[in-house]
């Protein structure tokens, strides 16, 4: 496939999701952008019940002042055309995730670090809906629900598609969600075809490696966010992924990094590269002897996009990068 055709394929995939999201948000973007309007306008159309990890929760039909407490919830809101009035940040220097459109983030109040949100700052925003997960903030549920109706999914990561449906239900954006899902599925199918079809994609074994400050190196298994995207494209996975603890990751020291070898390897870094042992590993003879390195099939990727984002906006960008790199 020529580079021109690849570029056209990438553009088409991106435009497909963008168009669907734009159509889905049509007529709702003004509401989304005005999520900082007075709380009195929120939910004027009534209320509905959402099934959550903490039981049934009654929420406004059209919430106007939404606070999100994790990255997946932020991606969901932005994907659905909703600008939260408040959001937490992760431990990254960039604050809110850097792959999200800056104009969609302007005006959002930072309510603290993701694991330790500032409840007073949240309350001061007078939200009419809070989105998060039990695994992150289950211990704060009693306090959060006193501030506003709080919709929690059970966990994050692998069940991101199910969680997105819950977020969409809470936000009153089911129709927009259906369009975003359809656009993503079509995009994934186009990437599979760009790789030569289902059989060729399945024969291409891919690993994702994450260097983490203060922890061992992670070789991602098959039960996490990024692996669901690889599966949607139909890519193969090496046998080492079956050894991942709880399906999530198989953790190794730099001295065992060769276990991460595959036809193609994508790697990201969380935290300080030196403390995450990224540099010492990438400079090692063991790393350089891997077939993926020798064949120039190793790709450094953005951790915020590939690992932390956990949503459809991130997924579309990841699909573009998979196609661009694996068709070189």
Q: In words, what does this structure look like?
A:
This protein is α/β, with parallel strands linked by helices. The chain has two domains: 29-172, 3-Layer(aba) Sandwich (Rossmann fold); 188-326, Nitrogenase molybdenum iron protein domain (Rossmann fold), CATH 3.40.50. The chain contains 16 helices and 13 strands. The strands form three sheets. It has a six-stranded mixed beta sheet with strand order 6-5-4-3-7-8.
List keywords for this structure.
Rossmann fold; disordered N terminus; 18% strand; alpha/beta; 328 residues; 5-stranded mixed β-sheet; globular
The gist of it:
This protein has 328 residues and is α/β, with parallel strands linked by helices. It contains 16 helices and 13 strands.
Structural class: alpha/beta
| Rg on CA atoms, Å | 20 Å
Terminal Cα separation, in Å? Answer: 9 Å
| Highest-level CATH class of the largest domain | Alpha Beta
The main sheet comes to:
6 strands, mixed
User: What is the total domain count?
Assistant: 2
- Average pLDDT over all residues: 89
Uncertain ranges = 1-43
Q: Considering the protein shown, what is the CATH homologous superfamily of the largest domain?
A: Nitrogenase molybdenum iron protein domain
Shape by Cα distribution: globular
Q: Could you tell me the strand content as a percent range? A: 15-25%
CATH architecture of the largest domain: 3-Layer(aba) Sandwich
Query: What series of H and E elements makes up the topology?
Result: HHEEEHEHEEHEHHEHHHEEHEEHHHEHH
Q: How many strand segments?
A: 13
CATH topology of the largest domain: Rossmann fold
Give the helix tally: 16
Strand order in space, largest sheet: 6-5-4-3-7-8
Fraction in helix? 40-55%
